[in-house]
Amino acid sequence: MKISEIAALAGVSAAAVSRYLNGGSISEEKKQKIKKVIEETGYVPNVAARSLRQQRSNSIGVVVPKINSDSVSNLLEGVSSVLSRSGYLTIFGNAGNDKKQELDYLRMMQEARLAGIVLMGTVLTSAHIRFFKESDIPIVVCGQNHSSVSCIYHDDRRAACEITRHIICKGRRRLAYVGAVEADVSVGLNRRMGVEDAMLSAGISPSELVRTQVLFTVDEGVRGMNMILDGGFVPDGVICATDTLAVGAIKALKERGYHVPADVSVGGIGGGLAGTIISPALTTVQLFHRESGEKAAQLLLSMISYNREHPGEKPPPTHTMLGYKLIERESD
């Protein structure tokens, strides 16, 4: 059977069938039509198409939520350093914080028959979980932990507890939290729970925590801090879900006439570059994003080897949690 015959049966162009077979971009509707015809006819692509896919089998996809952050750049460095030494080509997909684009990248990489995928996870939807379960290529998720897929993740809850405990030990008890959307379980939910854990340990009721949820930018950190102040609450300690948000919070406090740390202590989470170039330098908890990328790539390579030795089988998901390190600077 020829591509033109598949196209006629599916009601699409031959070019669309060719793009489908070669991992190109086509609409979901056309994909489903072509897939159905191929399954019904038992069509096997010709040698050239198979060869093209084999050539791509030494490529690995890396999908990230955005590229303009320290955590993402450090993870990419870790992934690429391991994969390049192993002779793999790395193909990046920047989702721009768009869940649909992220899923489109995952599907395209699977259809292109890449050897495996590393996903820097943020919000894992039901569609993500379904993709993980149905995918026939190895996948490793960084930054989130879910039972359906292999993961390299951070000890977000205890890291947030550590920085909060540190702020409380400075004598701060009127606490505010500039947090992230809690659909992001690791950064949003777990870090907020860590803040509350530290408060409970210090005899402070979590109900006294004044908090807000914003996006992951400096401007959003400014907005989140201003929302708290505009609500009439003036904290003496502020914990932020990320260093970027903490930079924004410090900016907002300064603009409102508060001195950091004389009036308000501020702590972040992440250990990125941004916290080192502001004044006062940010006290934070460092997370090891480069190591996360390295371990994700190493795990993915082991999964690829397993698949080659056990065709048609999937290794059970593995889950590795990384540690953290408190870095005390000037903002507390």
Q: What would you say this structure looks like, in words?
A:
This protein is of the alpha/beta class. Among the domains are: 1-56, Orthogonal Bundle (434 Repressor (Amino-terminal Domain)), CATH 1.10.260; 156-287, Rossmann fold (3-Layer(aba) Sandwich), CATH 3.40.50. 47% of the residues lie in helices and 18% in strands. It has twelve helices and twelve strands. The strands form two sheets. A six-stranded parallel β-sheet has the order 2-1-3-4-5-11, sandwiched between helices. A six-stranded mixed β-sheet has the order 7-6-8-9-10-12, with helices on both faces. Helix 1 crosses helix 2 and helix 10 crosses helix 11. The longest helix is centred in the last third of the chain and has 21 residues, at 289-309. It is elongated, with a radius of gyration of 23 Å. It starts with a helix and ends in a 5-residue tail after the last strand. The model is unreliable at 46-56 (pLDDT under 50).
Primary descriptors:
47% helix; alpha/beta; 434 Repressor (Amino-terminal Domain); elongated; 332 residues; 6-stranded parallel sheet; 12 strands; 6-stranded mixed sheet; Rossmann fold
Helix and strand composition category: alpha/beta
The general outline is: elongated
**CATH architecture term of the domain at 156-287:** 3-Layer(aba) Sandwich
Determine the number of helices (DSSP H or I, runs of at least 4 residues). 12
State the CATH class of the domain at 156-287: Alpha Beta
CATH topology of the domain at 156-287: Rossmann fold
The radius of gyration over CA amounts to 23 Å
Number of strands: 12
Q: Please bin the fraction of helical residues.
A: 40-55%
Strand content: 15-25%
What number is the mean pLDDT? 91
| Largest pleated sheet | 6 strands, parallel
Distance between the termini: 70 Å
Low-confidence runs of at least 5 consecutive residues: 46-56
Query: What is the assigned CATH homologous superfamily of the domain at 156-287?
Result: Response regulator
The largest beta-sheet arranges its strands as: 2-1-3-4-5-11
What letter string, H or E per element, gives the SSE order? HHHHEHEHEHEEHEHEHEHEEHEE
